[in-house]
Amino acid sequence: MNLKHIAPVVVIVAALLGAAAIVATTERLQPTQPAPVAPTVRVLTADPKAVRMVVHAQGTVTPRTETAMVPEVSGTVVWISPNLVPGGYFEAGEPLLRIDDRDYLATVARARASVSRAEAEHEYSDFELRRLEELDTRQLISRSDFEAGMRAARVAEADLQDAMVALEQAERDLERTEILAPYKGLVRNEQTDVGQFVSRGATIANLYAVDYVEVRLPIADQQLAYLDLPLTQRGELDDATAPTVTLSANFAGQDYRWTGKLVRTEAEIDPRSRMIQVVARISAEGVSLDNPNALPPPVGLFVHAEIEGRLAEDIVVVPRAAIRNTNEVLVVDEENRLRFRTVELLRVYGDNAFISSGLSKGELVCISPLQIVIDGMRVEPLLQLDEMPGR
User: Fold this and answer.
1) Which domain holds residue 322?
2) Any idea what the CATH number is for the domain that residue 147 is in?
């Protein structure tokens, strides 16, 4: 046979024998199942403790006392205080405006003259009555003459009282020609100037006091449970038990904070919104111009309020996202397995949930947002460093 035809056959046979040898000597691999990897979850340690409830609200600062300045006498304005301008500041008892008093000085002079004349008539009638009494004792005059003298004395006394009252009224009108500030405050607006005739009873300016400012805060009736306020409060709350209110605002690019007290609740609940208005008061006593936060907030400023409520005992605070199925949480047991736990929620507010019962101290609560959870599944817990979230 020709070598040219034998060589390919030899190569093919050798390849087949080599492949068979490789297959025969190859070690068979046994199928294996990889061990499951437990997912890592973030947990926090349950630590029941006392937690102060907080209620948030918003409102606008208003003056506690606001007055329309109204003259009690009519006349021409002859002087106005430089502080009687919108935004002007004044002290209690400071003169703000004067009205021409010449007519009132003349009225006082006439009233004093009338008093002098009435005093003279009264002295004469008293002297005459004593003389008639002596004559009547001696039976030298008739009874009618004596009674006429008594009548004249009583009329003279009444005329004296009338003259004295007229003098007092004239003096009061004279005093009213100068209008004094009723308290320490600011001018909201004014509508008069020197030379203008003002009438009695017409408003010429609006003032408000700066000793206190108030903020009306709408609160939902469900939130009142956390403030411990009486349902039918009459008058102001006791200062010792009144909740503390912290107001905050950003004005002109700067953050400000003020502390005040909740002083009262308004008389009725809004039937449409089911809100009740509570009133917070911020005092200006002892403030310093060197510290802007020591001054009360300006009238008209929109502020955010944080009201301290009642103190709840044995509360565990967890993130709101940790609550599942309305009232359940996931607890990691000693074997690092997830277990569903039914809890009692006191309150869900903002980003936090307040749990009043169902968790024991030291238990690990899962706070990771797991999509699929099987009761008893193994996990790898990772302790959250900032365990207790802010209120």
Assistant:
1) 41-51+313-383
2) 1.10.287
Three-class SS state of 105: helix
Q: Which two tokens stand for residue 179?
A: 């209008």
CA distance 40 to 84: 71
Amino acid sitting at position 340: F
Residue 366 burial (CB < 10 Å; 0-12/13-18/19+)? buried
What is the spatial distance between Cα 302 and Cα 29, in angstroms, rounded to a whole number? 76
Q: Are residues 217 and 304 in the same domain?
A: yes
- 111/199 same-domain check: no
Domain boundary among 310, 342, 373: 310
Q: Is residue 337 part of a domain?
A: yes
Indicate the pTM of the whole model. Answer: 0.70
pLDDT surpassing 60 at residue 288 = no
Q: How many CA atoms lie within 13 A of 114 on its CB side?
A: 19
The predicted-structure confidence for 122-173, as pLDDT tens digits, reads as follows 888 888 878 777 776 777 777 777 777 788 888 888 989 999 999 999 999 9
Q: Which amino acid is at 15?
A: A
DSSP secondary structure of 108-173? HHHHHHHHHHHHHHHHHHHHHHHHHHHHHHTT-S-HHHHHHHHHHHHHHHHHHHHHHHHHHHHHHH
| 240 and 275 within one domain | yes
- Would residue 130 be called left, alpha or beta, if left means φ above 0 and alpha means ψ between -120 and 50 degrees? alpha
* Tokens standing for residue 42: 């973030």
- For residue 231, name the pLDDT band (cuts at 50, 70, 90): low
Same domain, 375 and 262: no
Do 333 and 218 fall within a single domain?
no
Contacts of 224 (CB under 8 A, 6+ apart): 276
190 vs 150: CA distance, rounded Å = 57
2 is a domain residue = no
Q: DSSP character for 378?
A: B
User: What does 348-368 look like in DSSP terms, one character per residue?
Assistant: EETTEEEEEES--TT-EEE-S
Domain count, the chain: 4
CATH (domain of 343):
2.40.420.20
- Residue 15 domain flag: no
